Amino acid sequence: VQLVESGGGWVQPGGSLRLSCAASGFTFRSSVMSWYRQAPGKERELVADISSAGGIRNYADSVKGRFTISRDNAKNTVYLQMNNLKPEDTAVYYCKAQARFWGQGTQVTVSS
Questions:
Q1: Half-sphere exposure of 47 (CA within 13 A, CB side)
Q2: In which region does residue 75 sit, left (phi positive, over 0), alpha (psi from -120 to 50) or beta (all else)?
Q3: CB of 34 within 8 A of CB of 94?
Q4: Are the C-beta atoms of residues 1 and 100 closer than 8 Å to each other?
């Protein structure tokens, strides 16, 4: 199993980023996919998850209305569109598959 995140970086408050997670080694189209994040000194937290067909999406209260999770089962990729970013969104963002496989993470930094 391999999960490779990309798309992180530095952005000013109010800006946007789109994270991608390319998956391989398992049946992606049958798998629930999730995005988590971990800020310095804090526990890892669930940001959003999406059902296998994409019809059910859940979000942490802190990102509702700003972040959108989506997936492309033909490309074995899950995305996280992040808009109106805030400094408190600064964290390492991780992709998770089937509630057990983790990617290596991608850093998102929001600051002026």
A1: 29
A2: alpha
A3: no
A4: no
Please identify every stretch of the chain with a pLDDT value under 70, giving residue numbers as ranges: none
Per-residue tokens: 90: 């600064």
Q: How many CB atoms lie within 10 A of CB 37?
A: 24
Question: What's the pLDDT at 51?
Answer: 97
Query: What does the angle CA 10 – CA 89 – CA 28 come to, to the nearest 5 degrees?
Result: 90
What's the pLDDT score for residue 99?
82
Cβ atoms 46, 34 nearer than 8 A: yes
Q: Strand pairing of 106-110 and 9-11?
A: parallel
Instruction: Say which amino acid occupies 85.
Output: L
CB-neighbour burial class of residue 58 (10 A; exposed 0-12, middle 13-18, buried 19+): middle
Q: What is the DSSP pairing of strand 57-59 with strand 45-50?
A: antiparallel
* Torsional class of 100: left (φ above 0), alpha (ψ -120 to 50), beta (otherwise): alpha
Structure tokens at 29: 């189209």
